[in-house]
Amino acid sequence: MRIAMIGTGYVGLVSGACFADFGHEVVCVDKNEEKIAALRADKIPIFEPGLDELVARNARERRLSFTTELAPAVRDAEVVFVAVGTPARRGDGHADLTYVFEAAREIAASINGQAVLVTKSTVPVGTGDEIERIVREVRPDARIVVVSNPEFLREGAAITDFRHPDRIVIGTDDERALDVMREVYRPLFLNQPPILPTSRRAAELIKYAANAFLATKITFINEIADLCEAIGADVQQVARGIGLDNRIGLKFLHAGPGFGGSCFPKDTLALIKTAQEADAPINIVETVVSVNEARKQALARRVADACGGSVAGKVIAVLGLTFKPNTDDMRDAPSLVLVPALLKEGAVVHAHDPQGMEQAKPLLPGVNFCASPYRAAEGADALVIVTEWDAYRALDLGRLKTIMQSPVIVDLRNIYRPDEMAAKGFRYWSVGRPNNMN
Ligand code: UGA
What is the pTM of this model? Predict the structure, then answer.
């Protein structure tokens, strides 16, 4: 099939490359000339495991191409995906749909008679209706069906998620468009594709509801972790004890510093706004957002407690800056709240991240960026693990102990065992586990 993908951000690039890998002919379009020039030279602007190889191979085999010219790319496409950014609008938390509507207008003007126009960008409920209105206005003569097909990819695992989806939601009541979409995804499945046809509005809401539910699950276990600290229980035991109930499930029950990233913070706010405007406020999600924010604000306090009450004049080694491992994405990362708070309290911050340091540098002025976790730990009064990169899971504890000023570790991701740390002579704080040294 001939597919045009508008927007080569995270979603567009991963989806475009994966569709090409199915055997479809995919043209990826982006207005940013530098980005397209780089992609044509096999240079991938983001870090995502396996993506560089996937893009290079499909480009070489001529199923995947890149252009800044939207009109020729969409003219003969059977399916046009819109995967442009929808940042949270300044001030009110609404998703900013300027780029989506602009793209819809341009696509409609350029299409040759008929096509299925699919929104992959996360857009508020009702956006499909507005796109349809725009398309009808620009091209009353064309047969363009507007479909919602939200994506559920996780950064760092996007290619695997694309190839093994739990479900593919297709929001349309047009049977022909549904058949076209089944054809797009057909190469994924030998039989029984988990395709879920829904109304377009339901599809749009499913994306927000899924992210808000996951954010709620994380926030729930984070609060249970705080309770565990107060009463002397282990949150990992509690998480397993509830998660083995199939109705609850084990995933997304890891207590930590609070959720971040480009999706949960933005999508929870957008859902809150949509619900308030529809006069059906979702109080639970409003609470999740404020509890998560407060949690990030309290992180520096945890570090100060581990340092005997204050970090003033202390050297703090921060390991992990990105919002999660296997990405270089710094958006809404807990480190962006913790590190400035430590600096404000008078700490000297040494930081390391395996992939995120280039992105982090302009965002975290005043930090001493180090080439390895051990360089960061040299002379440190405490070491704080903020992101659970594999590279931090088996640190040489003996070496750390000799190079640090004091053997104090604050593990915000619970990647070490308290008994192991105690045996090695560390004073160890983690999240929601009983033997925190307070
Ligand atoms: C999330 C969803 O998981 C995807 O399904 C969705 O497609 C994507 O948003 C999106 O809307 O595009 P992502 O933001 O890549 O994916 O990251 P997650 O793995 O979901 O993690 C989000 C945040 O929650 C991270 O800060 C992570 O550290 C935190 N988290 C996650 C926890 O603190 N505990 C957990 O148990 C799980």
Answer: 0.94
